[in-house]
């Protein structure tokens, strides 16, 4: 039996839709997945949660969806979890991949097999190549090389899986808040404040033109690429990057040239709708092999 530990976002729904039998849906307290959970657990009762999974006949676990590191309430730690506390605390203190590796090891030592989301739904990994009508230019290809190098550098610090690049310059790097948070300053919304930004941007020649890059200097964001890839050495059984229609919409709103994702390393939800949106806005989606020119 499979248990799906569901975070926020659309990935858990996509996995359940592809499974012939509904898994046991579990959620960490404080997170509201789009699915109704069968079992809610606290990190302070992880040991008891593992026992509950075994008692229900669970042999496999998959982690899907976004979660943030929970605070620990020492008074809520139960007896079954006390032996795990040093490892849980050490995991929470690490970077994203380090924390996930530690948690995966705890599940495996409990006799559970951890399955990657793309093992359950391999169709979420799109084929290599440029999947849209718009071609990729030489400049876009050069920016993709910069993007790959940037993700490699970020991987050494174990943080982030995406960046924005234009003309060889990195405009933004993904942080703990995720890709959408990185994109939001470049993608004006219907918010009244952003309405004023839109008006100013029109005067200056584009809503993203006046934004500052990471070094504080004025930058031009239109024509940039969103580059997304897993960290080079990360454990791909959890936290494999995902893009979807909202990512495409934000890239369109920002006036980007397109999106570049690493082949076999980034899942795409609702690929047909993503391609249609990008085609209609004249953006590209390039599924690029690592090290590709």
Commentary on this structure:
The protein is of the alpha/beta class and 293 residues long. The protein is built from ten helices and 13 strands. Helix 3 runs antiparallel to helix 4 and helix 9 (245-253) packs parallel to helix 10 (271-281). The longest helix is centred in the middle third of the chain and has 19 residues, at 138-156. The protein starts with a strand and ends in a 5-residue tail after the last strand.
Key features?
293 residues, six-stranded mixed beta sheet, Cytidine Deaminase, domain 2, Rossmann fold, five-stranded parallel beta sheet, alpha/beta
Mean pLDDT: 86
- Name the assembly state: single chain
**Into how many domains do the coordinates divide?**
2
Beginning-to-end CA distance, first to last residue: 43 Å
- Net shape: elongated
Order of helices and strands: EHEEHEHHEHEHEEHHEEHEEHE
Structure classification: alpha/beta
Low-confidence segments: 191-212
CATH class of the largest domain: Alpha Beta
CATH architecture type of the largest domain: 3-Layer(aba) Sandwich
| Topology-level CATH name of the largest domain | Cytidine Deaminase, domain 2
Please report the total strand number as a whole number. 13
**How is the main sheet built?**
6 strands, mixed
Q: Tell me the β content.
A: 15-25%
Number of helices: 10
- How much is the radius of gyration in Å? 20 Å
Helix content: 25-40%
CATH superfamily of the largest domain: LpxI C-terminal catalytic domain
The strand order across the widest sheet is: 6-13-11-9-7-8
């Amino acid at each position: 039996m499979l248990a799906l530990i569901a975070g926020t976002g659309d990935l858990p729904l996509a996995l359940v839709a592809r499974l012939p039998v509904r898994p046991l849906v579990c959620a960490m307290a404080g997170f509201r997945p789009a699915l109704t959970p069968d079992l809610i657990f606290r990190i302070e009762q992880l040991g008891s949660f593992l026992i509950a999974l075994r008692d229900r006949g669970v042999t496999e676990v998959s982690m899907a969806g976004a979660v943030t590191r929970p605070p620990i309430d020492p008074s809520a730690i139960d007896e079954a979890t006390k032996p795990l506390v040093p490892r849980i605390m050490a995991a929470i203190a690490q970077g994203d991949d380090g924390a996930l590796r530690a948690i995966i090891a705890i599940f495996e030592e409990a006799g559970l097999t951890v399955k990657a989301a793309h093992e359950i739904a391999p169709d979420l990994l799109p084929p290599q190549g440029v999947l849209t009508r718009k071609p990729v230019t030489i400049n876009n290809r050069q920016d993709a090389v910069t993007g790959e190098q940037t993700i490699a550098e970020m991987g050494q610090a174990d943080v982030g899986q995406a960046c924005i690049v234009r003309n060889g310059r990195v405009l933004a790097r993904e942080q703990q808040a995720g890709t959408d948070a990185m994109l939001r300053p470049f993608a004006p919304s219907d918010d009244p404040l952003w309405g004023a930004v839109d008006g100013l941007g029109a005067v200056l020649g584009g809503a993203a033109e006046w934004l500052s890059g990471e070094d504080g200097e004025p930058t031009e964001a239109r024509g940039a690429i969103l580059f997304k890839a897993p960290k080079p050495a990360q454990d791909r059984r959890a936290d494999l990057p995902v893009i979807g229609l909202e990512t495409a919409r934000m890239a369109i709103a920002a006036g980007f040239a397109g999106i570049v994702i690493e082949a076999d390393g980034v899942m795409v939800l609702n690929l047909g709708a993503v391609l249609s949106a990008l085609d209609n806005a004249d953006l590209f989606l390039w599924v690029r092999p690592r090290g590709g020119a």
